[in-house]
């Protein structure tokens, strides 16, 4: 039983990270019907920027450690958001009226560009996050010793997701984002500036993705320039699992995928965890091709 | 001076020209209708006014402001709202959320609440169903929602694209009566319709479009009496 709960918590931590990255895929898909293949690389950039900021600014010397980590968190999210914003301007907006395929090729190109830029700047080796960053306290829950960092990662991703949900569901701007995702033309007839909504989505998605990159660095302690590929693929899977374009779906899909993977690793074999994650995806696509939460209501004609 | 003037509007979809120079005008306080068969260019004309379709020649003036270079969201801010063809309500959002989105340009929340009350007076069904998802409404209710949503922008000019499409005759009559009530509140209406008889009874003036050209423009009662209009659009 203890193993089950440990794996469950581990799965929720990894799943929270998948969910944060998946949100970027799903929100961009929602408003542009485009898979932003460069999104995984923005996640990588978040991880590297976090490392650079932590190392160069010596923030931990000036501020108490939790405050320093929080400050880096915010800075990484803002910088990743800025890069996402520029990415949309440079790689997608000029192709807005071109065919769908052109934008996909542009996305793949942007992904290769980012991945190689990171490699050129930082080198191809694995980087290790400073040890002292990793919170080393342990929490005892129901007699289980749970690493504090695990709970912090879960808490951080849940907080970010709750914040995003409140923003999307309760604010005018959130309603505008949903409206553009449903029907951009009708949204324009409401007086919504669709270009501005798209820019906003390219700030929020990469911001969350960059923050997730930093969380992986702190949680696992090491990063490399290809991590965006594997995490990106998993997060993309999570977005499809939940229903691409659906924001709660990305959250659910991410958490579910993380938990399934962790349980598979714990009970079957760690080598099988990726295979089982993708097997679940295949099954969902056969049984429910729209994903778990995709297309909840049918539009009447 | 007319509230809205279209001069020599030409639109191409790809390499096919679909509007060959449309001229029309709408005076403040009027109900003007555009009649024509499928593919005559009626919806394209309305979409050009809202800026969702970009004419390659001509000019559109609204109360002294040229519209053609304005982004579509600014056109709404000037006081032109549209209830588009096919209604296009936001299906996975509630009725109330749809209506509030209609008021996206309105900064004065208190005034929007009063507009909302007026819309619920016009369409009591929307009040009953305000928490329901728009996609689950009947066709007639969705049409009411599309009109109500456009009115939330507090337009001076309301563009209505085929509000009677696919509705039962009784409902069509009630929708047209509501359009008259809206007009009495001082909203100018430009109405695109296939239901020519009902539209001409409601309107002050009408234009007849044929394959991208205005072939007739007259007072509504003259068009109702016109032999060729009767034959082509009123079933003889």
Structure description:
Chain A is mainly alpha-helical. Chain A has one domain. In chain A, 74% of the residues lie in helices and 4% in strands. In chain A, the strands form 2 sheets. In chain A, strands 1-4 form a two-stranded antiparallel sheet. Chain B is of the alpha/beta class and 236 residues long. Chain B is built from 10 helices and 10 strands. In chain B, the strands form 2 sheets. Chain B has a 6-stranded mixed beta sheet, sandwiched between helices. The mean pLDDT of chain B is 95. Classes of the chains: A mainly alpha (301), B alpha/beta (236). Chain A binds chain B through residues 172, 175-176, 178-179, 182-183, 185-194, 296-301, and chain B through 50-52, 71-74, 76-77, 81-82, 84, 88-93, 97, 100-102, 104-105, 133, 135-139, 142, 149-150, 153.
Features:
heterodimer, A: 301 residues, mainly alpha, two-stranded antiparallel ribbon, two-stranded antiparallel sheet, 4 strands, disordered C terminus, B: 236 residues, alpha/beta, 6-stranded mixed beta sheet, 4-stranded antiparallel beta sheet, 10 helices, 39% helix, 27% strand, globular
């Amino acid at each position: 039983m203890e193993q089950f709960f440990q794996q469950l918590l581990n799965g929720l931590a990894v799943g929270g990270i998948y969910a944060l990255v998946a949100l970027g895929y799903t929100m961009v898909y929602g408003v542009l019907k485009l898979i932003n293949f460069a999104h995984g690389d923005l996640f990588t950039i978040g991880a590297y920027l976090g490392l650079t900021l932590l190392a160069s600014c010596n923030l931990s010397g000036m501020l108490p450690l939790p405050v320093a980590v929080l400050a880096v968190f915010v800075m990484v999210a803002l910088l990743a958001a800025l890069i996402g914003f520029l990415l949309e301007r440079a790689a997608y907006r000029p192709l807005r009226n071109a065919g769908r395929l052109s934008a996909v090729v542009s996305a793949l190109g942007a992904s290769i560009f980012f991945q190689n830029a990171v490699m050129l700047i930082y080198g191809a080796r694995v980087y290790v996050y400073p040890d002292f960053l990793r919170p080393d306290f342990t929490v005892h829950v129901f007699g289980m010793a749970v690493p504090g960092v695990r709970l912090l990662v879960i808490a951080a991703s849940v907080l970010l997701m709750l914040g995003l949900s409140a923003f999307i569901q309760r604010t005018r701007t959130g309603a505008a984002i949903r409206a553009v995702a449903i029907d951009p033309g009708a949204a324009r007839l409401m007086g919504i500036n669709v270009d501005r909504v798209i820019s906003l989505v390219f700030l929020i998605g990469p911001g969350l993705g960059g923050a997730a990159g930093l969380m992986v660095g702190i949680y696992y302690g090491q990063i490399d320039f290809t991590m965006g590929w594997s995490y990106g693929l998993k997060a993309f899977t999570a977005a499809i699992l939940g229903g691409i374009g659906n924001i709660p779906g990305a959250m659910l899909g991410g958490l579910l995928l993380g938990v399934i993977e962790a349980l598979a690793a714990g009970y079957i074999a760690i080598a099988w965890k990726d295979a089982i994650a993708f097997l679940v995806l295949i099954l969902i696509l056969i049984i429910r091709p729209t994903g778990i939460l995709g297309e909840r209501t049918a539009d009447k004609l | 001076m007319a509230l809205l003037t279209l001069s020599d509007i030409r639109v191409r979809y790809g390499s096919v020209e679909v509007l060959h120079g449309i001229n029309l005008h709408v005076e403040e306080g009027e109900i003007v209708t555009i009649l024509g068969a499928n593919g005559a260019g009626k919806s394209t004309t309305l979409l050009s006014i809202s800026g969702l379709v970009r004419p390659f020649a001509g000019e559109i003036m609204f109360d002294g402001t040229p519209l053609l270079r304005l982004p579509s969201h600014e056109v709404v801010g000037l006081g032109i709202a549209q209830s588009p063809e096919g209604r296009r309500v936001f299906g996975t959002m509630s009725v109330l959320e749809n209506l509030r989105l209609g008021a996206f340009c309105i900064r004065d929340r208190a005034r929007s609440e009063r507009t909302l009350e007026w819309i619920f007076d016009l369409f009591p069904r929307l009040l009953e169903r305000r928490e329901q998802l728009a996609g689950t409404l009947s066709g007639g209710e969705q049409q009411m929602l599309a009109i109500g949503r456009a009115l939330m922008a507090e337009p001076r000019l309301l563009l209505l694209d085929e509000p009677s499409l696919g509705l039962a005759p009784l409902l069509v009559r009630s929708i047209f009566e509501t359009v008259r009530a809206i007009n009495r509140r001082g909203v100018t209406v430009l109405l695109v319709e296939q239901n020519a008889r009902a539209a001409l009874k409601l309107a002050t003036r009408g234009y007849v479009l044929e394959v991208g050209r205005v072939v007739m423009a007259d007072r509504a009662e003259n068009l109702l009496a016109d032999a060729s209009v009767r034959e082509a659009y009123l079933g003889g």
